[in-house]
Amino acid sequence: MKLENFKSFKGQHCETTATGSLLKNIGIELSEPMLFGLGEGLGFIFWRMKTIDFPFIGGRVKTDMLTDNICRNLNLRLEVQETSSVKKAWKNLKTQLDNGNVVGVKLDCYHLDYFTSKIHFAGHYAAMYGYDDEFAYLVDTDQQGGKVKTSLKNLELARNEKGPMSSRNLIYTIKKNEEVFDLPSAIKIAIRNNAITYLNPPIKNLTYKGIIKTSVEIKKWFKNSPDVKRDFQTTAMLMERAGTGGSLFRNLYRDFLKESAVILKSIELNQCYENFIEIAIHWKEVSDLFYKAGKTKSIDYINSASDLLVELAEKEKQMMEQLLEITK
């Protein structure tokens, strides 16, 4: 069974791709940068997880929040289901699909047939639009193949995996409310909320404080790593290709500001967009330096990355202060 007239969303980041597919099939078509911005998505985290042998570097708000923010800002009804029962989890998912709904599913990408990099990451999202006796039919990011499929058994394992960022077989659907959203107002609210969250991190692992912490920790990490090549080359790949950090989220937020500046006819927002061009370029430089450090095993590249991270922390803090002022 596959949903008739299903429309897939093409995206670079998993959650915006999944949620974009759900929205597209209820008649709401917005760009990926706009979805990321409306989701108040810009953030940063440096975290050590038991499931990964090296620290996790992420460039967005924590899992589950992005879609929740999008739906709140667009006055949409988000319905989430979770269960610890594998049997009930499949029943919940199958019922939604049989009722004609595209479903967002949260997964550990390690178990998915089409993933070539076998790393446990339980904060991955895809949109599901069909199934048969053997396979589940999904929409994932462009780099993972767009329309893809995985075995029902592996889908079950991916949904039920435990560990950091995991949920209990979480699925979600989105429906419209009677009141239509006002996009210009939603944009202003989202920018302001994102700025407030970014400027007030509850712990030093997050946002600009997390970037500063990372600038210190990567030197210790390099010196103590049992496998510098694996750690830093894999991190560079994850930051740029898997969408956990690097320039991807800065590119999305940059383009969100550009689109917003046009919609709101704002010279100030356009200036912020231009400043974010430089920020995004510098994040790509950081991941490139990580890759070179892994390839050459030279700490010189880590020292350069550390200096650049300190600079980026200050630039991003200043930018979010500016955005907060603009949206007063």
Description:
With about 325 residues, this protein is an alpha+beta fold. The protein is built from 11 helices and 8 strands. A 6-stranded antiparallel beta sheet has the order 3-8-4-5-6-7, with helices on both faces. Strands 1-2 form a two-stranded antiparallel ribbon. A hairpin with a 3-residue loop joins strand 5 and strand 6 (about 135-140). Helix 7 (about 205-225) packs antiparallel against helix 11 (about 300-325) and helix 9 packs antiparallel against helix 10 (about 265-295). It is globular and about 55 Å long. The protein starts with 13 loop residues before the first helix and ends with a helix.
Q: How many DSSP-defined strands?
A: 8
Radius of gyration: 20 Å
Regions with little confidence, pLDDT below 50 for 5+ residues? none
Q: Could you state the order of secondary-structure elements as H and E?
A: HHEEHEHEEEEHEHHHHHH
Q: What is the strand arrangement across the widest sheet?
A: 3-8-4-5-6-7
Q: If helices are DSSP runs of H or I spanning 4 or more residues, what is the number of helices?
A: 11
Distance between the termini: 49 Å
Largest sheet: 6 strands, antiparallel
Helix fraction?
40-55%
Strand content is 5-15%
Q: Report the average pLDDT across residues.
A: 94
Classification by helices and strands: alpha+beta
Looking at the structure, what is the overall shape? globular
